[in-house]
Amino acid sequence: MNPAFSVIFLTTLIGTGQGLFIAVVFGQPYSGSGISNYGLVATILAFAFLAAGLLASFFHLGRPERAWRAVTKWRTSWLSREVIVLPIAMILVLIYAVVQWIPGLVDGKIMNTIGLVGVFVMLVLFFCTAMIYACVKFLQEWATPWTIINYTVLGTASGFVLATALSAILDVERLGDFRSLAIAFTVIGLITRLFSFHRNNRIKYRSSIQTAVGIKHRKITQRSMGHTGGSFNTRAFFHHCSDTLISNLRLTVIIIVFVIPVAMLILYGLFPREEILWAAFVVQFIGLLAERWLFFAQANHPQNLYYQTVS
Amino acid sequence: MSKQLALVIDLNVCVGCHACVTSCKEWNTSGSAGALPDERPYGKDPSGTFFNRVQTFEIGEFPNVETVHFPKSCLHCEDPPCVPVCPTGASYKREEDGIVLVDYDKCIGCEYCAWACPYGAREIDTRQKVMKKCTLCVDRIYDQELPVSERKPACVLACPTSARLFGDIQDPDSEVSVAIREEGGYQLMPEWGTNPANHYLPRRKQRITIHEDELIRADSPLKKEGVHPHGPVKDVTLDDVTSW
Q1: Residue range A106-162, pLDDT digits in tens
Q2: So what's the pLDDT on residue B241?
């Protein structure tokens, strides 16, 4: 597939926002009686990430003015379900921000309930986003539970790294827990992503040129795709990058999404400077953009079998 | 089973002339849905939206090689994977005749349906920013103002070798059903369970088996009298033992 930057930004930005919100709710019980600035700032930031992701998604649409129609087919379409769940998640984050903004508006129990419902909706949103890709069964790189696991774990890891950096300036009390969890989620993400890389390396494609044209012969060569200029089929489904770039990018992703952030988070224990944590978040987020690019680029669409040779 | 209109394309007959491509483009660029884009048609890097393409494949290796021209358009799957993924319901399959269509007024241009089509049958309209695809000339096949013989998709009418058949594949007595049944019609990428309505008829060679002893007529009078191309025949022939 040819990766679309709107979708790359959508999935990475909302992933971080979702992870950050999960981190905020996780941290809340530790606040005791008072509500800290930290919770409010982090909640608003989580909302900003979700909103930025939503904004990015509009750039993917040919007719963004009709986007509201996308809520109608929630019975069959995971995309429609995502379009419904994302605003619900954003509303819950806003409510969570408001109850922190005005102390005493609701008691701690109700606030925690709102938070937990929010966390549940965030997990549902991870599932909906990943299922958009995982449900396309002939995109065999995507049609696997690893897609769902990686979207969830990588988004959560990124959110927890951001939560660690935020807590360094706003609430040092929580920093230790966030830092440990950020390391834990990043390491889990490394393991699950390596598993999915491993699986995708060994895929046996069910479609071949033989099934595509329905002729039984070992040697079938395309001599013409029917047009000399490009078309939607040659633009949208090919990334036009070399195999070397892809394999180099894979190594880069492993290093900057997982190895460097974990090293920096550990380094913070020795040199407690908050810049290290911010750098860890930024490096990991850039890495996640590359990871998502790779996720799209590595998906091999069976329609490409029909577009092997111009003429 | 309800009606399912479809094309049956005979690869044995297709000569790869692209007449179906140009007639398809001509008809569909002139319809009420508006022109199909054709960017820089005579320029350096032409690009456009087509509903039908003719591709060419080479089967085997010289000297045992054969060229197959392969027209490819939307297959109007009986279980179309592009329909349930559409978030707006713009992509739909008609109950009454099984044609898979896009409602251009509802499409948001998210391209998800194109991802969900294993055949690459959908092409985005780069001007209108909506997804487009073969309509089986739905604006033509029901047109009461056309003579009955012309109520067929433009590609079928244009084909000079009649490689394209059109009809209801659920009706066992239709031309297309008979062709599929008797000429070995098959579906593309059956592994995904999409159950395409369009079928392809394979290359078919006419062969008869002739054994060596059938090449020389055993009771040929030439064997007894006259100039025999292989010299005189010493064997007894039927003429020696029967009186006819």
Answers
A1: 787 888 899 999 999 999 999 999 999 999 999 999 999 999 999 999 999 999 999
A2: 73
Distance CA A233, CA A295 (A): 19
Of B49, B89, B90, the CB nearest to A232: B49
How far B8 CA sits from the closest chain A CA (Å)?
Answer: 14
Q: How far apart are CA B46 and CA A117, in angstroms?
A: 53
Burial of B189 (0-12, 13-18, 19+ CB in 10 A): buried
Q: Is the dihedral of CA A45, A46, A50, A56 positive or negative?
A: positive
**Six token digits for residue B30:** 């002139």
Helix and strand totals (H; E) in chain B: 7, 11
Give the Cα separation of A34 and B76 in Å (integer).
62
DSSP A229: S
Residue type (1 letter), B4: Q
Nearest Cα to B4, choosing from B96, B129, B136, B140? B96
Contact residues on chain B for A136, CB-CB shorter than 8 A: 81, 85, 115-116
Out of B48, B129, B191, closest to residue A63 by CB: B129
Residue to substitute from A233, A237, A310, interface B, most B β-carbons within 10 A: A233
Closest chain A residue by Cα to residue B132:
A232
Query: Would you call B81 an interface residue with chain A, using a CB distance cutoff of 8 Å?
Result: yes
**A37-58 burial, b for 16+ CB within 10 Å, e for fewer?**
ebbbbbbbbbbebbbbbbebbe
Residue A56 φ then ψ, to 5°: -60, -35
Residues of chain B with pLDDT under 70: 1, 218-233, 243-244
A64: chain B residues, CB-CB within 8 Å: 108
A253-263 average pLDDT score: 97
Best of B110, B126, B128, B134 to disrupt the A interface (most A CBs within 10 Å) is B110
> What DSSP string runs through B87-137?
SSS-EEE-TTT--EEE-TTT-----HHHHT-TT---EEETTTTEEE---TT
